[in-house]
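W.,

You were right to be curious about this one. When I first looked at the sequence I had no strong expectations either way, so I just let the prediction run and decided to look at it fresh. Below is the sequence, 474 residues in total, followed by the output.
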Amino acid sequence: MNKLKSIGNYFKDFGTAIVKGDIWVKLSLFIMGAGYIARKQVINGLIMIALQAVFAVMCVFYAAPNLAKFGTLGTVQFEQVFDPLTLISTVNDYDNSFLILLNSIISLFIIVAFILVYIANVKTVYRLQRNKEEGLHINTFREDIKALFNEKFHITLLTLPCIGVVLMNIIPILVLVAIAFTNYDQQHMPPSALFTWVGFKNFKSLFTTSVTVTFGYSFGKVLVWTLEWAFLATFTTFIGGILMAQFINNKNTKWPKMWRTLFMVAIAVPQFVTLLLVRNFFADSGIVNTICANIGLTDFLKDVGLVSEHLTYIPFLTNPSWAKVMIVIINIWVGIPYQMLVATGVLMNIPTDQIESARIDGANRLQIFVKITMPYVLFITGPSLITDFVKNINNFNVIYLLTQDVYVTQDQLLANSHAKEIDLLVTWLFRLTNEYYNYKMASVIGILVFIICAAFTLVTFTQMIKGNREEDFQ
């Protein structure tokens, strides 16, 4: 509500400047630097005039040609003609749908940015008018530059990072969203082919299950496993890390430094190396299966019905049920060391007076852990826990590196949508783009992943910061 009010005030101030401004303010609506020059800020005025001129040139030679084709994303198909007389192939002046889309989004972004600068310019010129009427000092260009390295230094520092965020994050996200409303796939691949707008057809396909379209079936199964995985991966490593930190920091534990060092070494090994090695260990013909067969464990699992009779190995990473369990277990091995170090730092700062008071009142170790240790750890690491949950929703490495080129789905409906039982939404998205070039559906899935993560983060953070709980731990 406050943000809407701020936006309303922003445009209200612009309207006030137009209505109450003098001739120079009104002239600034047409020549952006006029108001500055009239207030003897010639350099500022020339900069704004130059900015307006560059924007006009950009609109004519860059924005207009692309925006003119934005509605269709191009109509001229790529054609290559070979001339047998000259033995030269000629290519026509074709349209590239992706470049049209990208350049149009960049053009729209620049136009919006210019409009904001335009409004700010009029408001600034009006403020200069008010300062002059009230006899206040008006900064020179040199004083404005000095201000950028003194009281406005935060603006100077944030300028480059903000530009980086726009170029590396915002514009790619806008392109991703736009592609979700097109038919950009392997059959419509620029520059040899055009793609065009299809509205909400791709979103409808994602929730449709039929003989030819099975995305609805696949999306449901992959989404459920993604949320199950995110919960299990976060919960097991979090609790495991706390328990391991409690064990190592216990006064009765011998050689705590050695145990802590061993876990730190596990962190030092690159995760992808660990996962690839573990994948080889648990392969159908890997060393773990060899050991299990030699000690009779494989035959025992056949007898109890956990392994099919026709198999001579335990399908650790090739059976959907076994693979899901193994992925969670392997993630515990990979994730606990980091959580243990985080928990160690938190546990060392628990108020000792609360623990001593609980002991005096007769509380045992379990009661102290449940009533004091865990609430304190959750309070301190709550934001990190939420981040870990969202990170696990997008945990590409563990799933992909353990199962790529190993797991093959037997579910034909999943296979029709290029999905697998052990896929997360992010690995499914990656496979659709990297292997099958189905960018349209991958973009739809990417949007839904963002919505899920954003909704979860907003709800949980809102609940977490509700009320003042700091006094409970002081």
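Here's what jumped out at me. Residues 2-199 form one domain. And, maybe more interesting for your project: The first strand starts at residue 80 and ends at 83.

Coffee later to discuss?

I.
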